[in-house]
Write a structure and sequence with these properties.
single chain, alpha/beta, Glucose Oxidase, domain 1, Enzyme I, Chain A, domain 2, TIM Barrel, 3 domains, eight-stranded parallel β-barrel, 25 helices
């Protein structure tokens, strides 16, 4: 049994066999075989080695003719590894002694091989890890042939293990049998982490070198409460975690009883608990969890499905489906937040050195007016179906907001000329997720219809911490005193201006911050649908004066640690059995 520590980004416990995405574009279908099949597996292994060597010989000869012998010599190292008798003997021994399948034995042996190279101090030799991974993929391809499966066609529950996970791949997990995720890299507020949390998949990121410790088929426990991943747990640990898993499910079931109850404090102050969604199908989940509407529809995932740019009609149908499913509840549609780690880095001609500070979000839309206007037309058309608001992300200046409004008015004029019905009076607001917008909030409040505080990016930019980088994740904290003061200022400014203010970052769905935010004056929270019941439970247990006292005290602290310790103590008084 091996225990590795990371950063929990989505609570819960997942227990299942592993699929290692970066070593397999497919799943190892079986870990062990019947005694009668052992020799057959050994024969499969021999054929895979022979086929891999022949393939490498052909590739080496081809490169030699085209680019010269020096380039072709790269393949000689791969051939040398495959020709080493010890490696083949080791893999065959795993098959014969442990009755492992040829695929599992190969993956296990190659993972051990990788770890040996990672311990070498010589950077040149340490780089050979990539070559070892390539050899592993080649052997597995010849072993498994056409039996490989992608994530969309898994036959039973798995825990996904990978070095990194893009938001586009993460988006595909909702329709797969993946029950938990563990990743080598990443931070708690990366776009991938946000997606995993939204889907309710127990997940731990920043588990350094995890993917080189795990082979497909290993039993894995992902503990999304205590920040750990357990490889090959023993029987006692497995039983302990299955019991915890059942207790966690029971707590979640008890929360379903709150669905029909209003979101209000113990003394009757009303709140709106809204949902953040990526896909039209999640609208139903919002209602199931007792949500009052959708506070953030992340539309960019229409672009991350891998089917090319969505047309106006495709977007219109997606927006209309969400609005229809919400059955009269409000829906806030955010325009595309493309860029950074979403879309543009893979498709841009020139990669940006610092994409988080580069061409992303509203900046990207204003440079792609053709794309932007198509989206605005689709939103305006769909907005005739219900209560819809439009929101522009990552705004830093009034000029930028006015430019976006001009494009919106152009879209309105075009639809008017074409005789296409649309919502003429759609309410338009902004996300406050930059220090610039927060500081100038009083000026924005005179022109916008509403404000939504996007703490995921706001924290990142206030603290100068890349929210997707596990190396600095300890510095990323919504409890930093500067963050609390900025949020408080924005809420007060909006209240004085008479415009609504919501908070739609991950902070909104964390019970640790519920009393604080309510005490600061926030009345609209927008979060992952599965977070709604617990936040509602906490709000209903507190009186508003009590929460205001908590917020007032929290604002006096000088360090993030003091804030967290105080909020945790206050929350545990009310929810002693919940992991905070």
């Amino acid at each position: 049994m091996e225990i590795l520590r990371g950063i929990a980004v989505s609570p819960g416990i997942a227990i299942a066999e592993a699929i290692v995405l970066d070593a397999e574009d497919y799943r190892i279908p079986q870990r062990t075989v019947a005694p009668a099949d052992v020799e057959h597996q050994a024969e499969i292994l021999e054929r895979a080695f022979a086929a891999s060597v022949a393939e490498l010989d052909r590739q080496r000869d081809g490169w030699s003719n085209e680019l010269g012998q020096h380039t072709a010599d790269i393949f000689n190292w791969h051939l040398g590894v495959l020709s080493t008798p010890q490696l083949r003997t080791q893999i065959k021994g795993l098959i014969q002694e442990s009755r492992f399948s040829a695929a599992y034995a190969t993956s296990l042996a190659m993972r051990r091989f990788q770890r040996r190279f990672k311990k070498i101090d010589d950077p040149a030799l340490a780089e050979r890890v990539r070559d070892v991974r390539d050899i592993e993929r080649r052997l597995l391809r010849h072993i498994l042939g056409e039996t490989r499966e992608d994530l969309a066609h898994l036959s039973r529950p798995v825990v996904l293990i990978t070095h990194e996970l893009t938001p586009s791949v993460a988006a595909s997990l909702s329709s797969s049998k993946v029950v938990g995720v563990a990743i080598d890299v990443g931070g708690p507020a990366s776009h991938t982490s946000i997606l995993l949390r939204a889907m309710g998949l127990p997940s731990v990121v920043g588990v350094t070198d995890l993917s080189s410790h795990v082979s497909g088929g290993d039993m894995i426990i992902v503990d999304g409460v205590n920040d750990i991943v357990i490889i090959a747990p023993d029987a006692a640990t497995l039983k302990q975690y299955r019991d915890q898993q059942n207790r966690y499910k029971k707590i979640r079931q008890e929360l379903t009883g709150l669905r029909e109850l209003p979101a209000e404090s113990h003394d009757g102050v009303e709140f709106k608990l809204l949902a953040n969604v990526e896909f039209p199908s999640e609208a139903a989940h919002c209602i199931e969890q007792g949500g009052d509407g959708i506070g953030l529809y992340r539309t960019e995932f229409l672009y991350l499905q891998g089917r090319g740019d969505p047309t106006e009609d495709e977007q219109y149908e997606a927006y209309r489906e969400v609005i229809s499913n919400m059955a009269g509840r409000p829906v806030t549609i955010r325009t595309f937040d493309l860029g950074a780690d979403k879309y543009t880095q893979d498709k841009s001609v020139e990669r940006e050195p610092n994409p988080m500070l580069g061409l992303r979000s509203i900046r990207y839309s204003l440079q792609r007016l053709d794309m932007f206007k198509v989206q605005l037309r689709a939103v305006l058309r769909a907005a005739t179906e219900g209560e819809v608001r439009l929101m522009f992300p990552l705004i830093i200046s009034l000029m930028e907001f006015r430019q976006a409004k001009m494009v919106l008015h152009d879209a309105m004029e075009d639809l008017e000329d074409e005789g296409i019905p649309f919502n003429h009076d759609i309410e338009v607001g902004i996300m406050v997720e930059t220090p610039a917008a927060a500081i100038q909030c009083r000026d924005f409040a005179r022109e916008v219809g509403f404000v939504s505080i996007g703490t995921n990016d706001l924290v990142q930019y206030l603290l100068a911490v890349d929210r997707g980088n596990e190396k600095v994740s300890r510095f990323y904290s919504s409890a930093h005193p500067s963050v609390l003061r900025v949020i408080h200022d924005v809420i007060k400014t909006c209240r004085k201006a008479g415009i609504s203010c919501s908070l739609c970052g991950e902070m909104a769905g964390q019970p640790l911050y519920t009393m604080l935010l309510a005490g600061l004056g926030l009345r609209q929270f927008s979060m992952g649908p599965h977070d709604i019941p617990e936040v509602k439970k906490l709000l209903r247990m507190c009186k508003i004066k009590q929460m205001e006292r908590v917020a007032k005290r929290a604002l006096t602290f000088e360090t993030e640690r003091q804030v967290v310790n105080y909020l945790r103590a206050q929350t545990r008084k009310l929810l002693p059995d919940d992991p905070i």
